[in-house]
Amino acid sequence: MASSLRHFAGPVVGAPAGGEASAAAPSSTSGFLLRRYTPNFCAFAALRPGRPALAAARKPFAAPGEQQQHRQEEAGDPRHERGLSTAAPSPALRVGIVGFGNFGQFIAGGIQRQGHAVLAASRSDYSAYCSQHGIRFFRSVDALCEEQPDVLLICSSILSTESVVRGIPFHKLRPDTIVADVLSVKQFPRNLLLEVLPPGFGIVCTHPMFGPDSGKHGWGKLPFVYDKVRVAEDGDQAAKCDQFLSIFEQEGCRMVEMSCAEHDRYAAGSQFITHTIGRVLSQLNMKSTPINTKGYETLLQLTENTVSDSFDLYYGLFMYNVNATEQLDNLERAFEKVRQMLYGRLHDLLRKQIVERVPMLVASSGNTKDGRPSSALAPLLSAVTAEEKKHLVPVAAVTTPSPTLQPVASSPGKC
């Protein structure tokens, strides 16, 4: 480009005025004007900002592969789906667990996998377990509360929850502490926490609908029910609540926000009924057989899962859920209805034979030539148990011949 400009402007373009360029100027006016007013663009090149300065002020473009990877990371971040900011990660939470039994240890594993600190207190000594898993163990709830965790998680049994909650020294905690529970019933802890906790404390009622057995291979797609009973919008309490719930979301749980009353209504018809059926089947002393069907194996597994939980848990599901009694009554009525359906059909067949003397048609070839029922009826008749015979007593009484009436002697003179 510079050589082209010099071709049009001549060798003296850019020389000082009145110098050798004036003397060497040709007589042609057009050539003079071209040489006089054509700027030397090469002379202005030094005035442009250099490329290193531009590169320092502007972020370099990422490679196409890096841009695609960045978009994939944003697409996989659930904070983008919920519209939350991803500018800077929040500090790790300090979660204090009160009641560090089997379920408390199970929940602590998920909390630690998401990078949060766990503090634990329990009546039993779990110091050896905690030292192996990087958990701070305290022998009293008072000592735990002095550490002022961000979230205090109640993992006690249903039956002991009230005494545990009333024994917590809330004055040692920060006034914006979030208290959560993982009980299998929800209206009971909700009302208890609203009654006992100071006004500024946050309350979140949760129920992981899984346990160490059903969640031993991961928490993916397992339902996690929660209810933000009382969470302040101002301050950082709401942010800490979302951060606490994101632990279970990041673990893959299916998050279900539901009121405590609605949860108990659903749980009575599902969880309580499941435990009840398992307890009933356990009383039958069911054993595996060489000819197990898939359905029978499912019942065996159900029995094993339910009896592995303590009876206190099952009793708590019944005692602390106002809907449990209704479901128990419904189950009893359903069983009685099925039994009546079976006995009713059998009684109808026997009644026609015994009372009405109607030949029983068991099959097209089930009767003999004289109309009497064949031996195919024998298994049916032998199935009448002592209980069924008791029900058939009134029917059999009808067939008893009435006493013979004796003639009465009358006097010849009387009518």
Helix and strand arrangement:
Elements: H1 2-9, H2 20-23, H3 29-37, H4 41-44, H5 51-57, H6 64-76, H7 78-81, E1 94-98, H8 102-113, E2 117-121, H9 127-132, E3 136-138, H10 141-146, E4 151-154, H11 161-166, E5 178-181, H12 187-196, E6 202-208, E7 223-230, H13 237-250, E8 254-257, H14 260-283, H15 294-308, H16 311-319, H17 324-354, H18 378-382, H19 386-399
Parallel strand pairs: 1-2, 1-4, 2-3, 4-5, 5-6, 7-8
Antiparallel strand pairs: 6-7
Strand content: 5-15%
- The span between the termini is 157 Å
Order of helices and strands: HHHHHHHEHEHEHEHEHEEHEHHHHHH
The helix count comes to: 19
Based on secondary structure, the structural category is alpha/beta
List how many beta strands DSSP finds. Answer: 8
Largest sheet: 8 strands, mixed
| Spatial extent as radius of gyration | 44 Å
> Within the largest sheet, what's the order of strands?
3-2-1-4-5-6-7-8
Low-confidence stretches: 1-37, 41-64, 79-86, 373-380, 392-405, 410-415
Mean pLDDT level: 79
Helical residues, percent: 40-55%
Shape: elongated
